[in-house]
Every structure is written in structure tokens, then in C-alpha cells.
């Protein structure tokens, strides 16, 4: 019974993601989320208190999902450079997926100034991301692949800023095919930052 409830909740969250990617934060409603999930509005209300509760849980669900995917990709590799490459590949996953996520994510960030819950969820997401890159840097320093004097905390934050900056630039670019260029630029920027030996 619990598993079925979890599946239904995830179905609604996927629908909320779809609805928000099409309509945007301000226009999405519980009814449009219900329509995308092909359930009644009452079913949405059963699992979520209101629109803000639904969207807060959506942001948390989305960022956790992304973090877990990136972590699994990195952990599937054994060498520091393999981990770094896997991380970039998992971040620049595919044009369609990146575009959909960042359209929704930027909508959330535009609300974060007035919404402490969103800020907290995003900070937790960033801490998770910094954790991934910190582990990659530590592993590279131990094996002598990366510069020893790098400040791990600062460099991890810079790496996340590079990712977001490049993906936002790519999203604003008319040329959808430039995704590969931005992915390669990200990887090269990381190599330069980490001063690969």
C-alpha cells in the first residue's frame, strides 16, 4: 500500500514538472498538474496541501534525483579523471533534458528571493554537488593527478558555478546543437582549474 502511494505521489510530481515546464511557475495550477497526471484535483490534494507544497516537494524531488544520478555516475568510475568526465557527462546529460530542467529550475530560482523553503532546498542541493566535486578533487590530489594546493571548498563552489553558468548560456543560445561545445568547455575548464599534472 505504501509503495503504491509513493508511486502515485511520484506520478503527480512528474506531472507537476511537465506542467511547470510548459506553463511556467506563475501559470501552473493544481488543476493543470492534475490534468497532466490524468487524475482528479482531489487526488492531488490528498498528497499535497496546496500549490506551494506541491512545488516545494517538486524542487526537492528533482534536485535529489539529479544529485543521485550524478553521484552514481561518478561512483561508477575508479580514477579521478574518469570520475571528472563522468560528472560532466551526467550534468550535460542531453539537450532536451537539460533544457527542460533549467527552464523549471530558473523559474524556482526567480522565486527564491521571497521563498525561504526554495532557498533551503537549493542550498542542500548545492551542498550535495559540492560534496561530489570535493570527493573528486580529494581523490585526484591523493593520486597526484590534481594540484596539491587547491582549496577544495572554494574550487567545488567554482565548479558548480561553471556548470550553471555554461548551461544557462547554452539555454539562451539559439543553437541547440552547441550543447556538445558547452560540455567540452566545461570539462576543459575543470582541467584548467584543477591544474592536471
Topology:
Layout: H1 2-23, H2 30-37, H3 41-47, H4 51-75, H5 80-91, H6 95-111, H7 116-142, H8 152-172, H9 179-194
Helix pairs in contact: 1-2, 1-4, 2-3, 4-5, 4-7, 5-7, 5-9, 7-8, 8-9
In short:
The protein is mainly α and 197 residues long. It is 79% helix and 0% strand.
Task: Give structural notes.
The protein is mainly α and 197 residues long. The protein has two domains: 1-48, Arc Repressor Mutant, subunit A (Orthogonal Bundle), CATH 1.10.10.60; 50-194, Tetracycline Repressor, domain 2 (Orthogonal Bundle), CATH 1.10.357.10. 79% of the residues lie in helices and 0% in strands. Helix 8 packs antiparallel against helix 9. The radius of gyration is 19 Å and the shape is elongated. The mean pLDDT is 96.
List keywords for this structure.
DNA binding, elongated, Arc Repressor Mutant, subunit A, transcription regulation, DNA-binding, Tetracycline Repressor, domain 2, 0% strand, 197 residues, Transcriptional regulator, DNA-bd_HTH_TetR-type_CS, 2 domains, mainly alpha
How many structural domains in the coordinates?
A: 2
Helix and strand composition category? mainly alpha
CATH homology group of the largest domain: Tetracycline Repressor, domain 2
Average residue-wise pLDDT: 96
| Structure annotation, total helices | 9
| CATH-level-2 architecture of the largest domain | Orthogonal Bundle
Distance between the ends: 54 Å
- The CATH C-level name of the largest domain is Mainly Alpha
Share of helical residues: over 70%
**Rg calculated over all Cα atoms:** 19 Å
Name the helix and strand elements from N-terminus to C-terminus, one letter apiece.
HHHHHHHHH
Estimated share of beta-strand residues: under 5%
Largest sheet, described in full?
Answer: none
Q: State the shape.
A: elongated
CATH topology of the largest domain: Tetracycline Repressor, domain 2
Total DSSP E strands: 0
Domain HTH tetR-type: 6-66
DNA-binding region: 29-48
Protein name: Transcriptional regulator
GO molecular function, one term: DNA binding
Amino acid at each position: 500500500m505504501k509503495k503504491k502511494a509513493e508511486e502515485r505521489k511520484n506520478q503527480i510530481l512528474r506531472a507537476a514538472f511537465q506542467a511547470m515546464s510548459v506553463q511556467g511557475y506563475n501559470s501552473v495550477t493544481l488543476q493543470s498538474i492534475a490534468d497532466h497526471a490524468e487524475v482528479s484535483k482531489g487526488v492531488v490534494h490528498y498528497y499535497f496541501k496546496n500549490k506551494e507544497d506541491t512545488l516545494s516537494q517538486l524542487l526537492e524531488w528533482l534536485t535529489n534525483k539529479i544529485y543521485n544520478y550524478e553521484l552514481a555516475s561518478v561512483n561508477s568510475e575508479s580514477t579521478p579523471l574518469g570520475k571528472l568526465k563522468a560528472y560532466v557527462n551526467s550534468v550535460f546529460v542531453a539537450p532536451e533534458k537539460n533544457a527542460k530542467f533549467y527552464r523549471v529550475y530558473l523559474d524556482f530560482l526567480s522565486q527564491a528571493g521571497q521563498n525561504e523553503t526554495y532557498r533551503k532546498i537549493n542550498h542542500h542541493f548545492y551542498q550535495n554537488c559540492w560534496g561530489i566535486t570535493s570527493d573528486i578533487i580529494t581523490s585526484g590530489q591523493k593520486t597526484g593527478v590534481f594540484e596539491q594546493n587547491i582549496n577544495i571548498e572554494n574550487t567545488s563552489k567554482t565548479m558548480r558555478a561553471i556548470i550553471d553558468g555554461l548551461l544557462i548560456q547554452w539555454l539562451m543560445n539559439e543553437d541547440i546543437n552547441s550543447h556538445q561545445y558547452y560540455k567540452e568547455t566545461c570539462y576543459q575548464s575543470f582541467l584548467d582549474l584543477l591544474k592536471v599534472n
